[in-house]
Structures are given as C-alpha cells and as structure tokens.
Recover the amino acids of this structure.
C-alpha cells in the first residue's frame, strides 16, 4: 500500500497530467470516468505506472476500478485499454528471454541447497526446465572431474530430479 | 455445441447457458507471487496468451480475484489442479506454495 505521503505525491503528479480540476483526494481519483482515467494513464511515465496501479488499489472497490481500466468494456475505449495494458506489461514483466541465464543457477543457487524444505518446494520449477538447462546446472554443481558432463536426454526431467535430490540429501 | 436452458430465479426468464462453459476457475490474490509468475503459470495451466494472462494478473492484484477459465466441471478441475501443482514462485525465496484457485458455478 502507498503511504499517505506517496498518495499525495501521485495525486499531484496526476493532477499535472490532467486537463481539468486538480485531484484533491482519492475520492476525486476514484470518481474519474473510465475514458479520462485511461487518458491520464496514457500520459503517466512508464516507470510510474506501478505507482498508478498502487494508487488505484488504495481506492478500494477494486472490481469497479478494474472495469474502468478495461474501458467499461466499450469498444470506443479499446485502443486506450490496449495501449495501457501493453505499456504496463512492458514495464512490469521481466525482459530476460530463454538463453539469457540459467534459471536454476539463479533461483536454486548452491548456497540454498542446505535448506531441504526450500529445495523440495522448487521441484515443480526444476521439472519445468529443459534437460539442457538441467544438465548445465548439474555440471556446475556436481562436476565429474574427468571432464564428463551430465547428459540427461530430453524428457528425463524426473530422473534428473531424482539424481539431483539424491545428491542434495547425501551432502 | 450443446446448450442447457436455465431459468433465472429472479426474473423467471429462460436463458441459455452453454454447457461447456458452465463452470469457472477463480484465482485468488496473495503476496507470494509476482506478475511474471502469474503470466507464466496461466499460460501453462489455462493456455492463455501472455496479454490475456497479464490482464488477469492485474485484475487479481486489484480486486483480489479473477476468473481464469470457463469450462465443464472436469476441465475446470483439471485447470485448478494444474494451478495447484505449478508450485511456488521461484523468483521469491519466501514463496513456498502455489496460488489458490477453486472451481465454482456448477
């Protein structure tokens, strides 16, 4: 939740973007009609869209606010709705694509393997990885020493997990 | 496509409810899962596009819940099971469980 100070700052920022009377309170903001809300959102800096959503959350009555973000489901508002969600999606979701890093090395690092409950909770995540990713991860964790590499074939994630889990609990 | 007539108790007007969309799966908000997780998980469990899944993520964040799937009871149960089996959000060390989902409306 945004603090009252941040709420005031956001309301002042949004008032500056609005072509109309100043927004003095959350109630003023919550009362904006759908089209105007989306027009203001279109002028909000991408980096501030998260705060814009936080401010909406502070208004309560989420369902009606979400409908307004959806342009009250009116066709005329659709371009504004699509533009808002596209911008917000770009600003919120991680941009890294497959191949940029090994997700297992990042989210299941060696130092976390002492916590067996944590490791076990990541089983589904492990099983969703390709065997290429799993093999690379296992090579880093359990180097064979003689230059051999792990080579679980595609589709053998369950076997790879059983091998990995066996190694972890025997540490 | 089959249809089942249904009478509204309030209006007495007979409406048609598609039998293959009679049930729905509701997803509930919590503080243990990121937008990335919700988008990824809904793409996997419900076959939603990233764009549609993202709107569901915003709705669940704003309102506390969102409908992520319509279908027959068995289909909805299968989707809810997939959501339950997806596991915690690997991006958050404190995340230790899947999101909560339930089948409603049939």
């Amino acid at each position: 939740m945004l603090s009252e100070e941040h709420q005031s700052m956001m309301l002042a920022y949004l008032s500056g973007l609005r072509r109309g009377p100043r927004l003095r309170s959350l109630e003023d903001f919550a009362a904006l009609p759908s089209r105007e809300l989306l027009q203001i959102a279109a002028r909000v800096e991408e980096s501030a869209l998260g705060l814009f959503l936080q401010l909406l959350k502070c208004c309560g009555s989420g369902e009606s606010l979400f409908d307004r973000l959806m342009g009250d489901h009116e066709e005329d508002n659709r371009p504004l709705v699509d533009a808002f969600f596209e911008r917000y999606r770009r600003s919120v979701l991680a941009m890294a694509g497959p191949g940029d890093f090994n997700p297992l090395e990042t989210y299941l690092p060696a130092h976390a393997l002492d916590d067996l409950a944590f490791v076990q909770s990541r089983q589904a995540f492990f099983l969703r990885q390709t065997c290429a990713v799993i093999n690379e991860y296992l090579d880093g964790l359990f180097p064979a020493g003689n230059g051999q590499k792990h080579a679980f074939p595609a589709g053998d994630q369950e076997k790879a997990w059983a091998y990995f889990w066996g190694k972890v609990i025997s540490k | 496509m089959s249809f089942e007539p249904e009478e509204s108790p309030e209006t007495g007007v007979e409406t048609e409810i598609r039998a293959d969309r009679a049930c729905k799966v509701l997803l509930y908000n919590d503080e243990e899962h990121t937008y990335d997780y919700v988008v990824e998980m809904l793409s996997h469990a419900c076959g939603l596009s990233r764009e549609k899944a993202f709107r569901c993520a915003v709705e669940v964040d704003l309102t506390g819940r969102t409908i992520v799937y319509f279908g027959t009871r068995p289909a909805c149960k299968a989707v809810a099971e997939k959501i339950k089996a997806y596991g915690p959000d690997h991006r958050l060390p404190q995340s230790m469980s899947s999101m909560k989902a339930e089948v409603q409306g049939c």
Notes: The first helix of chain A runs from residue 4 to 17.
